[in-house]
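Per your request, structure below.
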């Protein structure tokens, strides 16, 4: 009798979970309070081979959406937004039309979501118009470029592109070479000591009209290094420890992006171990991982062509981010902390990262000068 009752309880629980999963598909919205002001949040849940969601901040401009995973929990659901290291967890009401819970997207707040139809849904912000592209066969240079030594007390390091303005913050010549030529720092050999120590801030505008693509931005920086830093080098081969990126037997789990094959990839960390990637090739991904995260070059051996969207979330260790990965505070929710990098790449992307040794191309510095500040 007890066995029958237990089995009946499992069946009822399964039915309730399945019912809520089915009822979850649609539009959910509610208002959270942040520093005394209302912020409207909307989740749009679909079932495309599995439950998925997009989270919108309705009152933010730009029309951007945060991908969210959907996980049933006891009596409710959990949305995880790795792009902001955030989450929402709520309990269903008796009629299944509302979720009462808590959201954490930097600030943490109570949030009740109500299921609405398309007519009741808040209008989403309109994305800004895409700027006209520079002709793909153009070979531009920077028309204007200002170079200054970085201020020692300025925090952060970055290479940014905002509209038609290119900028660096606290970048060394070695780090700029890694961006311009797609290298790991270990692939830059020789040069004066200051190549990896002295830092520079650059603001530059390209000649011509239209928005340059990724290849054109990198080419312009390479020309700037030659013109203003008098950079000269020759290429050679060197046997180095590397990571080889391959595809697992079951295939990758990346989402194809065919919207803008000549557009800029977006590879910006939202914190250590939170890496949303948009409109990027495997070469783009490997280049960023080797430049920012890992201690050796990353060689793409996946054979995957085209551009993709994905978000990689992991718990960094002491070998990553230049040794800073192990200095991070423990996760706020240890029970739901993401796995380490190698496991995360395999589970989340369907790829594999293996340490090995390969003969890789290196750039041997023949000449370099400090530029005149302007």
């Amino acid at each position: 009798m007890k066995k029958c009752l237990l089995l009946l309880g499992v069946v009822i629980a399964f039915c309730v979970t399945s019912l809520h999963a089915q009822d979850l598909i649609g539009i959910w919205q509610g208002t959270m309070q942040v520093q005394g002001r209302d912020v409207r949040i909307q989740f749009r849940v679909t079932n495309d081979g599995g439950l998925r969601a997009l989270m919108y901040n309705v009152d933010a401009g730009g029309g951007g959406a945060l991908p969210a995973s959907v996980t049933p929990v006891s009596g409710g659901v959990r949305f995880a937004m790795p792009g902001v290291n955030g989450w929402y967890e709520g309990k269903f009401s008796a009629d299944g039309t509302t979720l009462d819970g808590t959201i954490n997207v930097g600030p943490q707040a109570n949030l009740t979501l109500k299921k609405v139809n398309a007519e009741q849904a808040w209008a989403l912000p309109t994305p800004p118009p895409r700027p006209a592209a520079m002709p793909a066969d153009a070979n531009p240079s920077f028309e204007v470029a200002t170079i200054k030594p970085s201020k020692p007390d300025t925090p952060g390091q970055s290479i940014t592109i905002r509209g038609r303005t290119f900028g660096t913050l606290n970048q060394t010549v070695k780090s700029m070479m890694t961006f311009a030529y797609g290298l790991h720092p270990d692939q830059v050999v020789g040069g004066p000591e200051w190549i990896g120590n002295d830092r520079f801030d650059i603001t530059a505008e390209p000649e011509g009209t239209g928005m340059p693509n990724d290849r054109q931005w990198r080419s312009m920086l390479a020309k700037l290094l030659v013109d203003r830093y008098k950079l000269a080098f020759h290429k050679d081969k060197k046997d180095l420890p590397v990571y080889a990126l391959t595809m697992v037997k079951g295939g990758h789990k990346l989402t194809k992006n065919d919207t803008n094959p000549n557009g800029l990839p977006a590879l910006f960390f939202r914190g250590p171990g939170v890496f949303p990637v948009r409109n990027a090739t495997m070469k783009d991904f490997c280049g960023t991982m080797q430049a920012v995260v890992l201690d050796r070059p990353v060689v793409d051996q996946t054979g995957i062509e085209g551009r993709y969207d994905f978000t990689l979330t992991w718990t960094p260790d002491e070998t990553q981010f230049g040794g800073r990965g192990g200095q991070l505070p423990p996760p706020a929710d240890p029970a739901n902390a993401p796995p380490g990098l190698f496991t995360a790449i395999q589970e989340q992307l369907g790829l594999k990262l293996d340490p090995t040794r390969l003969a890789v191309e290196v750039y041997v510095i023949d000449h370099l000068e400090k530029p005149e500040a302007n």
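Residues 1-19 have pLDDT under 50 and may be disordered.

Regards,
D.
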